[in-house]
Amino acid sequence: MKKSKIIFLILLLSFSCTDKDDNIYIPSANKEYVVQDFIWKSMNIWYYWKNDAANLGDNRFSNNKQYNDFLSSYPAPEDFFYDGILVEEDRFSYITDDYNTLFNSQQGIFKTNGIEYGLYRIGEGNDVAGVIRYIMPNSDASTKNVKRGDIFYAVNGVSLYSNRENPNDNNLSLVREDVVTLSFATIEDNTIIPNNIEIEFTRSEYTENPVFISKVIEQTNTKIGYLMYNGFTSPFDAELNSSIGELKSQGITYLILDLRYNPGGSVRTSTYLASMITGQFNGSLYSRLRYNNFWQDYFGNENLSYNFTDKINNGQTNEPINSLNLNNVYMLTSSGTASASELLINGLKPYINVVQVGDTTVGKNQASIILLDDPRGDYASSLPYSGKKIENANPLHTYALQPIVSKTENSAGFSGYEKGLSPDFYIKENITQLGVLGDENEPLLSKAIEQITGISSKSTLKKSEVKSQFITDSKTDLPTTNHMYVD
């Protein structure tokens, strides 16, 4: 794809000549509903489903009073965005009143105590248990006696619950407090049994390197690369490339890519990783974005295409890509695998054999951009975010939008995975038998190795006797989770 900075410059210059709503009321600098005005005019330009959103029509309002009455009918900007603008099928557009947190999250920076967990209802009732999936290195949790597979049930002495009949009735936000004392337990016969272990954890700002595990596994004279990658975070493109290069230097002939806890991220980074896995398709179409009618006609297909490449050039590094030239790749997925992870699977399928092991993915085939309120123009125009330059943002508020602006399709034109990408070999993680990440006997990894070597899996996974229902996980709290973005 042509450099996004050039494209966004064209977009910004084009605002003044594409505005169809010059007659619409413009709130003054101290207008109460300036945020709502920013939301409407931004979404009227960018929203993928603009033509399907009744309140975004260019002729929706016949005079200023109608427009102003509509803005004031939703006093809270969040209600205006979610209830007044979005279409029903939109699951992922996002608004925040703190754009700095959103920007940081996109760079892999967020507050955490270092525990990545999933929350599950246990048995038939409303009791909730948290299951630790992994511990972030050099975090507060990494200094404590906790590990993958440990189970907690209470926070600061209060047991966790989530009402089955009314999911909004819950106290799960307790886990997100800056300082928490977790009470641990075991699960037997669908019952949470406290074990009298309590540990305090403190959240602080943390930068996560998404390259979590990179190693070589040797089986039957076959060298298999294993890479656990937990987020398509563009500032770490060089680290990703280096990890692939190290695996390549050790002579791997197969790659198992673990995306089970990867909620997605940068479209560009997904393109880079696809190019690292392959290498023999340089210049060929990897993925294409489809925008709303206006932008699609304006750009055409060429300017909205991402091609396989042999170089990383993201403004931070400019280096050759380490390519493995593989014809087969094995992906480990879960119900939390989303956006840029799914883009990778879908984008590679027309070119090489992709074997998926695990659970069905989220089903996010859409991309977004971050928009700030830039009042410099003739109206409160939206400003696509690039870098940390926010000096032109409206000083009256710190709201930002991350709306769906496009859908992605692969080189075969396929984009229809709204219900998720189904695995070739279905294995759902058993919360009481998670295994050790990167270990050959860990259930999902063991199954992938079996498909490569033809030797039966060594995994000792037993059928779960615990009835559990997944609710949410720690990554869901991040503003960029499930938000594949164009950068």
From TrEMBL:
<dbReference type="InterPro" id="IPR005151">
    <property type="entry name" value="Tail-specific_protease"/>
</dbReference>
<dbReference type="InterPro" id="IPR029045">
    <property type="entry name" value="ClpP/crotonase-like_dom_sf"/>
</dbReference>
<dbReference type="Pfam" id="PF18294">
    <property type="entry name" value="Pept_S41_N"/>
</dbReference>
<dbReference type="GO" id="GO:0008236">
    <property type="term" value="F:serine-type peptidase activity"/>
</dbReference>
<dbReference type="GO" id="GO:0004175">
    <property type="term" value="F:endopeptidase activity"/>
</dbReference>
<dbReference type="GO" id="GO:0030288">
    <property type="term" value="C:outer membrane-bounded periplasmic space"/>
</dbReference>
<feature type="domain" description="Tail specific protease">
    <location>
        <begin position="194"/>
        <end position="428"/>
    </location>
</feature>
<dbReference type="InterPro" id="IPR041613">
    <property type="entry name" value="Pept_S41_N"/>
</dbReference>
<dbReference type="GO" id="GO:0006508">
    <property type="term" value="P:proteolysis"/>
</dbReference>
<dbReference type="InterPro" id="IPR036034">
    <property type="entry name" value="PDZ_sf"/>
</dbReference>
<dbReference type="GO" id="GO:0007165">
    <property type="term" value="P:signal transduction"/>
</dbReference>
<dbReference type="Pfam" id="PF03572">
    <property type="entry name" value="Peptidase_S41"/>
</dbReference>
<protein>
    <submittedName>
        <fullName>S41 family peptidase</fullName>
    </submittedName>
</protein>
